[in-house]
């Protein structure tokens, strides 16, 4: 029994310093507004809005905590993070478009052919709208002839003129839209053509 007690006592003596070290509280330190160091086993009140260090019982800095950001600093940080995210999204989208462009066409001739097909389809709609415009203008000319030289215009003629004017405005809006579509399609394919050349052109070798 004596030997067992001695062994137990030896084990306890070897473990106690480790337990004691682990249970010792860490120290929190910061520098106050006067440049003096403020420390405590709990965070000193003067350190609440400042950067501080957490120090182990052995004097080693365990971690460093930055000072809380001000409202202006948070706003600036959030704006910078948003700008970084937006930039990353744009770069990823640009890479995706480049990949689709190269995978979709084998040559600039294919791009030109696709452009011509799309413009041809829009042109069909444009011609149809212009034909409708011509018909409405012809109707308008007939309505103008129905106006009496003097006196009030008949009610049915007035109503027909109002309807004709509304239909003309709608058709002309379609004509303008189709023309813009043709211009936008041409610009889009020109941009694709230029980018395709940039992506597929072999780099020149130094001479």
Please give the structural blueprint.
Blueprint lengths: L1 H22 L3 E5 L5 E4 L11 E4 L5 E5 L5 H34 L3 H38 L9 H46 L7
Antiparallel strand pairs: 1-2, 1-3, 3-4
Radius of gyration (CA) equals 41 Å
Regions with pLDDT < 50 over 5+ consecutive residues?
15-23
Q: Helical region count?
A: 4
What is the element string, with H for helices and E for strands? HEEEEHHH
Overall geometry comes to elongated
Q: What would you call the structural class?
A: alpha+beta
The portion of residues forming beta strands comes to 5-15%
Placed side by side, the strands forming the largest sheet appear as 2-1-3-4
**Proportion of residues in helical segments:** 55-70%
> What's the story with the biggest beta sheet?
4 strands, antiparallel
Beta-strand segment tally:
4
- Report the mean per-residue pLDDT as an integer: 86
- Number of individual domains: 3
How widely separated are the two ends?
Answer: 93 Å
């Amino acid at each position: 029994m004596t030997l067992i007690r001695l062994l137990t006592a030896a084990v306890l003596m070897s473990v106690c310093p480790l337990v004691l070290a682990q249970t010792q509280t860490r120290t929190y330190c910061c520098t106050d507004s006067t440049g003096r160091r403020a420390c405590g086993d709990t965070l000193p009140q003067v350190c609440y809005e400042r950067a501080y260090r957490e120090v182990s019982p052995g004097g080693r800095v365990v971690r460093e905590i930055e000072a809380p950001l001000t409202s202006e600093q948070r706003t600036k940080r959030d704006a910078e993070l948003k700008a970084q995210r937006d930039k990353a999204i744009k770069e990823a989208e640009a890479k995706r478009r480049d990949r689709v462009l190269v995978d979709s066409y084998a040559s600039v001739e294919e791009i030109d052919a696709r452009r011509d097909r799309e413009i041809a389809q829009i042109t069909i709609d444009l011609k149809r709208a212009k034909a409708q415009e011509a018909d409405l203008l012809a109707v308008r000319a007939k309505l103008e002839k129905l106006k009496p030289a003097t006196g009030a215009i008949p009610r049915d003629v007035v109503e027909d003129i109002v309807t004709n004017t509304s239909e003309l405005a709608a058709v002309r809006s379609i004509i303008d839209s189709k023309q813009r579509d043709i211009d936008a399609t041409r610009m889009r394919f020109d941009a694709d053509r230029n980018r395709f050349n940039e992506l597929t052109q072999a780099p020149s070798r130094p001479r």
